[in-house]
Amino acid sequence: MTAVPGNEKSPIAMELARKQKSISVAEFFEKNRHMLGFDSLPRCLITCIKEAVDNSLDACEEASILPDIYIRVRKVDDRLVSIIIEDNGPGIQKDVLPRVFGKLLYGSRFHAIRQSRGQQGIGISAAVLYGQLTSGKPARITSKIDPRLPAYMYELKIDTETNEPRIISERVDEFFTSRGTRIELEMEAAYVRGKQSVLEYLRNTAIVNPHARITFVDPLGEKTTFERASDVLPKQPVEIKPHPRGIELGTLIKMMQSAEHGKLSTFLNSEFAKVGGYTAENICKEASIDPSADPVELAKDIDAVKRLMAAFQKIKVMAPPKDCLSPITEDLLKKGVVQNHRVDFIATSSRPVNASRGNPFLVEALIAYGGDIQPEGRIDIVRFANRVPLMYQQGACAITHAIERINWKHYNLEQSKGAKLPSGPIMIMVHVASTNVPFTSESKDAIADVPELIDEVELAVRQAARELSRFLSEQKKAGEARKKIKLFEAYTKEVAQALEDLTGKPASVVEAKLTDALNKKYAKFIEDAALPETPVKDGGA
Amino acid sequence: MTAVPGNEKSPIAMELARKQKSISVAEFFEKNRHMLGFDSLPRCLITCIKEAVDNSLDACEEASILPDIYIRVRKVDDRLVSIIIEDNGPGIQKDVLPRVFGKLLYGSRFHAIRQSRGQQGIGISAAVLYGQLTSGKPARITSKIDPRLPAYMYELKIDTETNEPRIISERVDEFFTSRGTRIELEMEAAYVRGKQSVLEYLRNTAIVNPHARITFVDPLGEKTTFERASDVLPKQPVEIKPHPRGIELGTLIKMMQSAEHGKLSTFLNSEFAKVGGYTAENICKEASIDPSADPVELAKDIDAVKRLMAAFQKIKVMAPPKDCLSPITEDLLKKGVVQNHRVDFIATSSRPVNASRGNPFLVEALIAYGGDIQPEGRIDIVRFANRVPLMYQQGACAITHAIERINWKHYNLEQSKGAKLPSGPIMIMVHVASTNVPFTSESKDAIADVPELIDEVELAVRQAARELSRFLSEQKKAGEARKKIKLFEAYTKEVAQALEDLTGKPASVVEAKLTDALNKKYAKFIEDAALPETPVKDGGA
């Protein structure tokens, strides 16, 4: 141990203070790029494409355009790939474009309370950051906002020390369609096949976005197109006010501080979803606060704000509105699975809108069984959040944790001792739609263990599991009935002969009667239960 | 579908552009506080304490002070708890204090390449942010940097729109010791017992920081003290230059751009760890670049930089220095386990320093078996990163994933079909020490799946597992030998009698000879193998 520095002239604290400095968010994420989904080489490729496709889909929907997205990946050398993602979206206006792609925490959807894929204003600039870090090259973005205007091209990098875009070059450019955006990047990444691949990500994206047409050209030049399955755009989610249930004290104080209305009751009525004039009065009464009190003044009195919070929980406020969300719908979930799999059974469920920390959300689930679903190994869990497939971090996700909380033996499924999941040919699909999906990290691959959310996922999965359980139990009964019939059939002849000997009735007559009785007794089971040979049994809806 | 907006006067892009805006990092994390470890109520409490204790331990070590840390949790009401964390560290100088606690991404350890607990300059300000969000109250921080100077107290909040501290009040204050920092917070949180509890976190912290004295007072006023097990401070990790192996192209370009030396060889020699003059010349030769070339000019030629990168991989450079790391050591890991458990077997391993993306790291592992370790349910995985216990997100962690990659049947352990982990009374402890631990998120609870890192964890665990496998195989042999002896013993008398009848030799003599032969044959197994009744068998080192 060295000398205690407090006894010296200058306290060690002064020495330490000199090292304190601000860290730019770009520097932070350059060092922690794995938090953004840039860790292994195959994941880097998927993350980049995912961020670009998310943006394209969001922008197309906001502009009521049926999305047409083109993705191409090419090998540059042993280490680097080049990626192009192009859409037919509304385009990005010249003066904001450099920041959209060249500044982290810059975006249009962060403050809006409605379902969207992108929320953080990080994703695509993270891809630009990772690209320049590993290839040393700028990103090239071309965008055209109107058929009557020329397209514009920027080559840009992110200045990590300031988190501002640095424009390398810019010019008026060609763009082959009337409107859209193209991004070209070079980065260290790897193209792989299999479960965690670009193709699989795009296939799942197509399932939950049937209004999109997606074309992919792989490094060997092979082209895959996921054609549009529907020409109807999903209903555009509506932006809403925060719901009083689940709002945080600090957020409420901030809202009150910037209130423009002189009266608390008016403030409540106009700034919150589902709070009408009558409810507002009731809340004030419950909190023992004068409805005409000034919110800005009131914000200084923490006890009053706390009473207001308590009243939010006590006074009945209608559930948050559903139109800020855009569920996939049970029908579409089912269609997506049936298009890609042959299954023996399928059930879906959909939960009502709930709220967590003031954010409305809802859960949809699907369970499929049998058919071509692999019976060996880990069961298939397919996760979606706001119509985006979640490809990584399954073990860290609230969806997985909710499924693991269920005792699957109660649902007629096998579950080994100590195993958290059931075994067998099962696929569980869950979609969480929310105005603010609580992802565990900026890479948006796993949903955090928020209690209300896990509960809802569990309820949704259980609901579908009950249908499956019934199906399996019927199947079991039918199987047993068949066994009994077979056993019986094997002895009918002898029994009939014995009865002929005893009663004198001809064996053929006795045999016919016996077979008839047997069929009557077990017909129910055999007809009710869908057996593996029969077509899909729809347990849902 | 509404009308296509491109046909209207103003393109939709202009409408969308108006919504684009910057998001402050504080706003971002206020909305995404779960990314910082503030999700469930019990976790919020642990996260807050963990961030404060991390800071205290780092600061004490930087100032060569044996840490003495006091933590108290009290219930305020049904929703809120108040938390105090106080240390005897060097204190924080008045002019930097508000930003240390009231600004995210502000710190002293972000740019330094050496092992430390805090790296990001986010942790403690995240606790302040969460506190003000849920309690509406400011954090109160008191610090004293020198016995001869007065202590100073600040009450502060974070202005989330600007990510700057807002000072609510400040004054000269009392502080009961000669030096140190105290933080007082109020927040929504819950105190629980069990595996994921404050007490368990502190116990594990004490195990890997035996030089610290930690006192905890729980909400019932019950006091627990983890006394110092050692009066020796761990060797302070030394700050180093980046290692050429694993550095990224973009980082290299940035370094070259700000090079102050006119010559490439001098730049390589002075800015990288383990690159001497001779190695620098070799690198230049391999890259076909003139050693006297100007790095700043060279940075503009991407092909040259790429050749330099390739040369970094080809030319042999010594492994990164170890003194930037502070391993727990195998001995201390073992001591920690033995102090808290009775076990039948224990083995440790420690891997040499490796580098990932230019960051030196090393892995230490321990496997304990039998004794009071629970044989039922999931096996115990105890994870540490830079001497900090990782309490949450086990399923998302590279340590867990590395353990899951191992086929445990090869190591004489049971592993059910489909199970990722072995079963039985097993505890696996892993410590990753790194100059930059790649956490999956800002909450620092799980390590990202960086390939080099998973590989090293797997190697370390396998090394200890081989010892365990030997022990289990010996134990099995000894068990079988005992069975045989018992079987033999049961018949010795009869055999001896039969032999007496046949040969005329007295049964007692024959019996003694038989017993003797038996003992000789099986002695080896019985002595070698430690059986459950025997004391700890140390398989490591």
The DSSP helix count of chain A reads 15
Overall average pLDDT of chain A: 89
Tell me which oligomeric state these chains represent. Answer: homodimer
Structural class of chain A: alpha+beta
- Classify the fold: give the CATH topology of the largest domain in chain A: Heat Shock Protein 90
Extract low-pLDDT stretches of chain A.
1-8, 528-535
Net shape of chain A = globular
CATH class type of the largest domain in chain A:
Alpha Beta
Looking across the biggest beta sheet of chain A, what order are the strands in? 7-6-5-8-3-2-9-10
Number of domains of chain A: 4
Number of strands of chain A: 17
The percent of residues in helical segments of chain A reads 25-40%
CATH architecture of the largest domain in chain A: 2-Layer Sandwich
Largest sheet geometry of chain A: 8 strands, mixed
Largest interface: A-B, 101 and 101 residues
